[in-house]
Write a structure and sequence with these properties.
The complex is a heterodimer of chains A (about 500) and B (about 280).
Chain A (H helix, E strand, L loop, with lengths): L1 H11 L4 H26 L3 H18 L7 E3 L1 H14 L1 H20 L11 H23 L4 H16 L9 H15 L29 H33 L5 H17 L5 E3 L1 H9 L5 H22 L4 H15 L2 H6 L5 H17 L2 H21 L2 E7 L5 E10 L4 H6 L9 E11 L2 H16 L3 E5 L1 H5 L3 H4 L7 H7 L1
Parallel strand pairs in A: 4-5, 5-6
Antiparallel strand pairs in A: 1-2, 3-4
Helix pairs in contact in A: 2-3, 2-4, 2-11, 2-12, 2-13, 3-10, 3-12, 4-5, 4-9, 5-9, 5-10, 6-13, 6-15, 6-16, 7-8, 7-13, 8-13, 9-10, 9-11, 15-16
Chain B lengths: L2 E5 L5 H16 L2 E8 L19 H37 L5 E7 L2 H9 L4 E5 L14 H9 L4 E4 L8 E6 L3 H12 L7 E8 L8 H9 L4 E7 L3 H12 L3 E5 L5 H7 L2 H8 L4 E4 L1
Parallel strand pairs in B: 1-2, 1-4, 2-3, 4-5, 6-7, 6-9, 7-8, 9-10
Antiparallel strand pairs in B: 5-10
Helix pairs in contact in B: 1-2, 3-4, 5-6, 7-9
The chains are: A alpha/beta (about 500), B alpha/beta (about 280).
C-alpha cells in the first residue's frame, strides 16, 4: 500500500518540480487579473474572487482528478451569479457556492461525469466560443464613457502581451503589460480607473466564516436554482478542460474524481469567503504551455497567488483597469476557437448549426448550462434524423401476382417510423403480404407501433399478413430484453 | 520449456544481463524473452514557454507542437530500442541461446514486467538503468519497484560477470528464503555448484538451518553451513561473499514494508549495493 502511495506522490507531485513551480508562478500572475476581473463581472469585491482562486486552486491540487489543470474563480461561473448577487447580496452567493459544491460532490459520487459522452464536439466548441464572447463582452462596460486615454492604454497593453514573446520567453508578457501600464499610470498621474476603485482587496489570509443567512426553506428556494446552474456549468467547463488537458499531455484523467474534487474545492471556497469557480480553459493551456504537468503546479499557483496578494497588495490596487481589460481580451482571444470559424466551410452544416446555436443561446441568455442543453438537444435531433435515413424497403411480387413480399433493411425508430409506415403500397390488391423484418432493427415502441399499424391496415384491405423475423428485429429494444450486457450481444445486434 | 524474461536498456549492464541470462538459459534449457521498454511521453520534461500569453488558436498550436516533440523523441526512442534489442539478441546468440524472442513495449517497466510475468520462470534485470552512473552507490529507481511487485525469482545482474561456480544462500528462515531453497533444490539452474548456507542471527539459536540444509542436500548439493551472530546481517553477508569468493548470492527480498525500509533501511537494498556479485532474489 505504501509503495502505491509513494509511486503516486512521485508521479503526481515530484515528477516535474522545476517546471511545475515555474508554470505555477506564471499561472498565479495571470490568475490575479482574472480573479479581479471575474469578481467585477459577478459584482462582488475583488477579494471574493481572489480568495476563491486561492482556495479552489489549493484544494483541487490535492483532490482533483486531472493533474496539471488549473481551477479558480472563472468567468463562466461569475456570469451565472450576477443576478443572485444583485438581488440578494454576497452572503447568499457564499451559501450558493457551498450548495454548488455539495451538488458537484454528489455528481461525482453518482458518476454523472459520464454524461459528458452526450456532449458532442460541436457543443464543446460552441461552449468555448460562447465563453470567449461573454468574457469579451464583460469588458465592454469598461470602455463606456472612457476617453481615448483608456483605449490607448488597452491597445498598448495588448501590444506588449503579443509582441514581447517574440523577444523573450522567460518572462510572462501579461505581467509586463500590467507592470508597465501601472507605472505609466502612476508616473504620469493619469486619470484612469484602478482596481482599487472596484472594491476591497484582501489584506489578510482568508478566514473561516459561516454565511450570514437564515437557514430556512426560503433561502434554499433562492439559492438552489443558482447552485444547480453553477454546479452544471462548473462541471461542464471542468470536464471539457480536463479533456483538453488530456489531449495536450497525452495522459488520462479521472473524471468522477474531478467532479467530486470541484465540489470539495467549492465548499471550501464558500466557507472562506470565495465565490464558486471551476477549471479554466485559458489558464490550463497557459500552465501546460509553461511546462506544468503535476499537481504541484496547481498548488503552487494558489499559494503564490495569495503570497502576491498579501505582499504586493497595495500595489495591486494601483493597477489601472485598462491593464486588466487588456489581459482579459487576451484570455478571450485565447479561449475562442478560431479554427472553428475556418472549419465551418468544411464541416457538415449540421455540426456548424449546433455550434452556432449553442453560442447564440448562451450569448442571448448568459446561461452556459442552458446553451449546452440546447446544443445537446440539437445534436441529438440531427443525429436521429441522419440515422432515420438508414432505412430501405424492397418489395417483390410473386409470379401469380397474389403475394407481395416486403423486405425491410435498416433502422426503425421514432424518427423513421412514419417513413417506414408510408413505404407500403396498400392500394395494390393482393391476397397475401409477407413483411420480412429480419434485416431491420426495431429500436423502440414507435417502431413496433408503426409495424402494428401497417399490419392492421393490410388486414382491413382483406389481405393476410405474415411478419417474419420480428424476434431478431426487436432484439434491439435492448432495455426491454436487456441483452446488451450479456456476452455476444454486439454480435447478435450486428449479425442481421 | 522454461522461459526467462530478460529486461535490457542502453545501460552498461545490458551485455552482462545477456551473458548471465545465457548462462541460465543453457543450464535450464530455457528460451529467452528479451524485453525493452520505452519511456512514456510523460516521463520526459515537457518543453516550457513562460510567456503566459495565449493568442489565436494557441490551444491547437500547442497540441501540434507537443505532439511534434513527442513524435521526434518517440521515433528516436523506437530506433534506439530496436538497436538495443538487436544487440541483446546478438549477444545471446553468441552464447548459443537458440530461442530468443524480442518484446518491445511502451510504458512503465514494472507494468510491462507484470504483464509478462505469468508466462516466465525467472526475470533478469540490471542493478541500475541507463541513466545511472555505474559507480554510483544509488540503486536504479526501477529495481526496487520491480523487486517488490514481481512474484517470480528475480536475477539482479551486477557490473561483474564471471563464471558462476559458488553460491551462497543468505538464510533467515522467512517464507521468501524458504521459497529460494525449494527452488534451488528442484531447479537445474545451480545443480552441481558449490553451495553455502549462511544464517545471520541476532540471538543465538534463532534460526534453524537443519531443515533447509536437508532440503538442499536432498537436491544433491554438498552444503557448507555457517551460522553467525550479528545485528548487521548485510555486513556479515557481504564479507562472507568476499572472503569465500562467492559468485552468486541467493536470498529473500524486501520482506519489510516500504515505510519500514525508508525509516530503518532495507537489508536487501544494502546487499544489492555492497555485494559486487549478482543476486537471485525471491519474494
Amino acid at each position: 500500500m505504501f509503495s502505491i502511495l509513494f509511486t503516486h506522490i512521485h508521479k503526481h507531485w515530484l515528477g516535474n518540480i522545476r517546471n511545475d513551480l515555474l508554470a505555477g508562478m506564471v499561472v498565479a500572475l495571470a490568475l490575479i487579473p482574472e480573479a479581479i476581473a471575474f469578481s467585477i463581472i459577478a459584482g462582488v469585491d475583488p477579494k471574493v474572487g481572489l480568495y476563491a482562486s486561492f482556495c479552489i486552486a489549493v484544494v483541487i491540487a490535492f483532490v482533483g482528478g486531472r493533474p496539471g489543470m488549473i481551477s479558480a474563480a472563472t468567468g463562466a461561473m461569475a456570469l451565472v451569479m450576477v443576478t443572485l448577487v444583485k438581488q440578494h447580496g454576497l452572503e447568499y452567493l457564499l451559501a450558493a457556492t457551498i450548495l454548488t459544491g455539495i451538488l458537484q460532490m454528489l455528481a461525482g459520487v453518482l458518476r454523472l461525469g459520464s454524461l459528458m459522452q452526450f456532449v458532442s464536439k460541436s457543443v464543446v466548441t460552441g461552449f468555448v466560443n460562447a465563453l470567449a464572447i461573454l468574457i469579451f463582452m464583460a469588458q465592454l462596460p469598461e470602455f463606456k464613457n472612457a476617453g481615448f486615454l483608456m483605449y490607448g492604454m488597452v491597445a498598448l497593453g495588448l501590444a506588449i502581451i503579443y509582441i514581447m514573446p517574440r523577444f523573450t520567453k522567460a518572462i510572462p508578457s501579461p505581467l509586463v503589460c500590467i507592470i508597465v501600464l501601472t507605472c505609466i499610470s502612476i508616473f504620469f498621474k493619469l486619470d484612469l480607473r484602478t482596481v482599487g476603485d472596484m472594491g476591497q482587496l484582501p489584506s489578510t489570509l482568508p478566514v473561516f466564516l459561516l454565511p450570514d443567512i437564515p437557514l430556512n426553506l426560503e433561502t434554499l428556494k433562492i439559492i438552489f436554482p443558482y447552485a444547480l446552474t453553477l454546479a452544471a456549468v462548473g462541471l461542464l467547463e471542468s470536464l471539457m478542460t480536463a479533456t483538453i488537458v488530456d489531449d495536450l499531455t497525452d495522459t488520462p484523467s479521472n473524471k468522477s474524481r474531478e467532479c467530486a474534487g470541484q465540489g470539495a474545492a467549492n465548499i471550501v471556497a464558500g466557507f472562506f469567503g470565495g465565490m464558486a469557480g471551476c477549471a479554466m480553459i485559458g489558464q490550463s493551456v497557459i500552465n501546460i504551455k509553461s511546462g506544468g504537468r503535476g499537481r504541484l503546479s496547481t498548488l503552487f499557483a494558489g499559494l503564490f497567488l495569495l503570497f502576491l496578494m498579501l505582499v504586493v497588495g497595495k500595489w495591486v490596487s494601483q493597477i489601472p483597469m485598462a491593464a486588466l481589460v487588456a489581459v482579459m481580451i487576451m484570455v478571450s482571444i485565447g479561449t475562442f476557437s478560431w479554427a472553428s470559424l475556418k472549419n465551418m466551410r468544411t464541416h457538415p452544416p449540421s455540426s456548424s448549426i449546433v455550434m452556432v446555436i449553442t453560442v447564440a443561446v448562451v450569448v442571448l441568455t448568459h446561461d452556459l448550462a442552458f446553451g449546452v442543453f440546447v446544443g445537446v438537444l440539437m445534436s441529438a435531433l440531427f443525429f436521429a434524423r441522419k440515422v432515420s435515413q438508414l432505412l430501405k424497403i424492397d418489395s417483390s411480387l410473386s409470379e401469380d401476382k397474389d403475394k407481395r413480399t416486403y423486405k425491410v433493411y435498416g433502422q426503425v425508430f421514432f424518427a423513421s417510423a412514419d417513413s417506414f409506415a408510408d413505404s407500403f403500397d396498400f392500394k395494390q390488391v393482393v391476397q397475401n403480404v409477407t413483411i420480412d423484418v429480419s434485416e431491420a432493427h426495431f429500436w423502440d415502441l414507435s417502431a413496433v407501433a408503426a409495424l402494428d399499424k401497417v399490419v392492421l391496415k393490410f388486414r382491413r384491405e382483406g389481405t393476410v399478413v405474415e411478419v417474419i423475423g420480428l424476434n431478431e428485429a426487436s432484439a434491439t429494444i435492448v432495455d426491454k430484453l436487456a441483452i446488451h450486457d450479456k456476452p455476444g450481444a454486439l454480435e447478435l445486434m450486428l449479425k442481421h | 520449456m522454461a522461459k526467462l524474461l530478460v529486461c535490457v536498456d542502453g545501460s552498461l549492464y545490458a551485455d552482462n544481463i545477456c551473458a548471465n541470462a545465457a548462462w541460465a538459459a543453457q543450464r535450464m534449457g530455457a528460451s529467452v524473452e528479451l524485453l525493452h521498454v520505452l519511456r512514456r511521453h510523460s516521463d520526459y520534461q515537457a518543453p516550457a514557454d513562460h510567456t503566459g500569453a495565449i493568442g489565436v488558436d494557441t490551444r491547437s498550436e500547442l497540441l501540434e507542437e507537443l505532439t511534434k516533440v513527442d513524435e521526434e523523441r518517440g521515433r528516436l526512442d523506437q530506433k534506439k530500442g530496436k538497436i538495443i534489442l538487436e544487440h541483446g539478441a546478438k549477444v545471446l546468440r553468441k552464447f548459443d541461446v537458440a530461442n530468443v524472442n524480442t518484446v518491445h513495449r511502451r510504458g512503465s517497466l514494472v507494468d510491462a514486467i507484470l504483464e509478462l510475468e505469468h508466462s516466465v520462470d525467472m526475470i533478469f534485470l540490471g542493478k541500475r538503468g541507463e541513466h545511472a552512473d555505474l559507480n554510483s552507490t544509488f540503486l536504479g529507481s526501477n529495481l526496487e519497484k520491480v523487486a517488490r511487485a514481481v512474484h517470480k525469482p528475480l536475477f539482479v545482474v551486477s557490473s561483474v560477470v564471471r563464471p558462476i561456480k559458488k553460491f551462497v544462500v543468505a538464510y533467515d528462515g522467512k517464507d521468501s528464503v524458504l521459497k529460494a531453497v525449494e527452488f534451488i533444490s528442484r531447479s537445474p539452474l545451480l545443480k552441481g555448484l558449490e553451495c553455502h548456507l549462511l544464517a545471520v542471527e541476532a540471538v543465538s539459536g534463532q534460526t534453524d538451518v537443519a531443515a533447509a540444509t536437508a532440503k538442499l542436500q536432498s537436491g544433491g548439493f554438498q552444503v557448507v553451513t555457517k551460522t553467525e551472530q550479528s545485528t548487521m546481517p548485510d555486513q556479515v553477508i557481504t564479507s562472507y561473499v568476499d572472503q569465500k569468493g562467492i559468485d552468486l548470492l541467493v536470498t529473500g527480498a524486501y520482506s519489510h514494508s516500504r515505510m519500514r525500509s525508508i525509516l530503518l533501511g532495507s537489508t536487501t537494498a544494502s546487499l544489492i549495493k555492497s555485494c559486487k556479485v549478482p543476486l537471485l532474489l525471491f519474494r
